[in-house]
Amino acid sequence: MNDITNARVLILATDGFEQSELFSPRDALMDAGATVTLASLSLDPIQGMLHAKKGLTITPDALIDQIDAEDFDALVLPGGLANPDALRLQPQVIAIIQAFFDADKTVAAICHAPWLLIEADVVDGRRVTSWPSLRTDLDNAGADVVDEEVVVDGNLITSRKPDDLPAFNAALIETIGAQVSAAA
């Protein structure tokens, strides 16, 4: 496994995130030594979901409007239905995603989060996976869509659902580690 103790990872989320898709990668990254920052639209606690039921809340560390992609090595986009749908309407969120892609930094999106990648116009020609209901949208945006638990296309990592989190987290840590090692 690659060393990520000096990695700085940004998670973008708002109300309606799928609880496991935020907490599991966050915990895995922190356990591996990364510094993780959760940014949202306000500093009020945001509501997680356990599918259709309310789950845990978490208080963001920073405001999305104050984020500079240059300060981070990787970006994690959790799913949930409402979370990515709300975030894709925010120009600053789209600009952050595009900045990560422009800098060829690791971007990881799970479940419904690839909606954000479509909005940022960064999936054309990329191999990706997602929750089944997004696959037509991804195909229409020019992506090569597959049904696999985790897909790594360069520095882009995508997964389908919470059951894929072990593979998603492992790919995330491996990809960030390779990126940080290459930059050192």
What does this molecule look like?
With 184 residues, the protein is an alpha/beta fold. The radius of gyration is 15 Å and the shape is globular. It has helices at 19-31, 82-87, 91-102, 114-119, 135-140, 165-183; strands spanning 8-12, 17-18, 35-40, 46-50, 53-58, 62-63, 74-77, 106-110, 127-128, 144-145, 150-153, 156-159.
Element-by-element helix/strand order? EEHEEEEEHHEHEHEEEH
Work out the radius of gyration.
Answer: 15 Å
What structural class do helix, strand and pairing data support?
alpha/beta
Q: Taking all residues together, what is the mean pLDDT?
A: 96
Q: Give a quick account of the main beta sheet: strands, pairing sense, barrel closure.
A: 7 strands, mixed
- Poorly predicted regions are none
Q: Tell me the helix content.
A: 25-40%
Question: How are the strands ordered across the major sheet?
Answer: 6-3-1-7-8-12-11
Number of helices: 6
Report how far apart the termini are.
16 Å
- Compute the number of strand runs: 12
What is the general shape?
globular
Q: Strand fraction band?
A: 25-35%
